[in-house]
Amino acid sequence: MSGFKKRPLMSTFGLELTGIDLSKPIADEDFNAVRQNFSDAGILLFRGQGHISPADQVNFSQRFGPLEEHVLTQFLLPGYPEIFVVSNIIEGGKHIGAHGGSKEYHSDLAYLEKPSLGSVFRCLECPESSGETSFVSMAAAYDALPKKLQGIFDELDAVYDYAWSYDRRMAKIRGPLSEAQRAKTPPIVHPAVRAHPETGRKSLFLSDIWVRHFVGMSEDDSQALLAEAMEVAKRPDAEYKHSWRPGDIVMWDNRSTMHRACPFDEKNTRRLMHRTTIKGDRPLRAATKH
Ligand SMILES: [Fe+2]
Predict the structure, then answer these.
(1) pLDDT number for residue 2
(2) How many Cα atoms within 13 Å fall on the side-chain side of residue 8?
(3) % of the chain exceeding 90 in pLDDT
(4) How far apart are CA 103 and CA 2, in angstroms?
(5) Which of 144, 150, 104 is nearest to 235 (CA)?
(6) How far apart are CA 129 and CA 126, in angstroms?
(7) Cα within 13 Å of Cα(268), Cβ side
(8) H-helix or E-strand containing 273?
(9) End-to-end alpha-carbon separation of the chain, Å?
(10) Which residue in 199, 161, 193, 163 sits closest to 288, CA to CA?
């Protein structure tokens, strides 16, 4: 064993792992320990990884499973279709990456039939004291719900409707969705509580953005109930706000956490991040193996 060390980020979730160089091959035994920590903690932070190459990031991410290639192909790193560039930088009159990450809590690709397992986000450039990313644990949120609400959410299915959400929030900014994009994102039903496939632990699986209603419930009643759960998820002291430094990598488990981008001065500072996104499975109410 290389003997990496762990430091908790929050009392309920998140770990910093030190003593790991992600540009070097990781022995299976060490990787299995990293993976177990990832599933248990929900978020892993690795600092001091400024020297790693795009290929190193892809190789490390791929050990967790196959990677997504983002539909916004204009923002993929040339030569590395698995790396999605997130940046406000403009070169030659063009944005080099997707800009303006979601300021509302979500887990990546939750509106797909098979949402992402996890995302690996690497900081290359960032402003000094803004542009953070905030995280909450949806496993800790489930545990913090009153028993009665846990029982209600245990039974509910949520309807994710990407096109409905886009029309309300994004169409004015980015223009309307094409018919082809609309056809790719039909409403999808997921259980409101999912079991982690590797630990069996229950998490709320919800979203401020994409959940339109719960099955068998009106939109108004659904939104009120959703707001009640989200208030618990975002309760004071439950958020981990990561202040980025160049060379940081944070990877988050989309099955048990949510995140949101914090604002920064997009006109006068530069932020450049590389994301790899690991493919996931259909969320299940009960774990089949653990
Ligand atoms: Fe995201």
Answers:
(1) 62
(2) 5
(3) 78
(4) 38
(5) 144
(6) 9
(7) 3
(8) strand 272-278
(9) 24
(10) 199
Residue 160 DSSP SS3: strand
| 259 C-alpha to ligand 1 centroid (Å) | 6
Specify the 3-state DSSP secondary structure of 88: coil
Quote the CA–CA distance of 211 and 226 in Å, as a whole number: 8
Pairing of strands 94-95, 202-204: unpaired
Q: Distance from the CA of 14 to the center of ligand 1, in angstroms? A: 17
CA 32/CA 186 separation, integer angstroms: 36
Q: Which two tokens stand for residue 50?
A: 């400024």
pTM: 0.93
106 alpha carbon to ligand 1 midpoint, in Å?
6
The rounded Å distance from CA 206 to ligand 1 centre is 14
pLDDT at 231: 95
| Ligand 1 center to 260 CA (angstroms) | 7
- Answer yes or no: are the C-beta atoms of 277 and 116 closer than 8 Å: yes
Q: How many residues in total does the chain contain?
A: 290
Place of tokens 């993929």: 76
Where do the H-state alpha helices sit in the chain?
28-41, 54-62, 138-144, 147-155, 162-169, 171-174, 179-184, 219-233
pLDDT tens-digit profile of 200-256? 999 999 988 999 999 999 999 999 999 999 999 999 899 999 999 999 999 999 999
CA of 101 to the centre of ligand 1 (A): 7
Q: What is the spatial distance between Cα 259 and Cα 257, in angstroms, rounded to a whole number?
A: 7
The full set of domains in the chain, from first to last, is 5-136+241-278 (3.60.130.10), 137-233 (3.60.130.10)
Question: Above 90 in pLDDT, residue 1?
Answer: no
How far does the centroid of ligand 1 lie from the alpha carbon of residue 121, in Å? 10
As given in the structure block, the two tokens for residue 210 are 């994409």
Axis crossing angle, helix 147-155 with helix 219-233, rounded to the nearest 10: 130
Q: What's the confidence (pLDDT) of residue 72?
A: 72
Q: Provide the token pair at 56.
A: 């190193």
| Distance from residue 103's CA to the centre of ligand 1 (Å) | 9
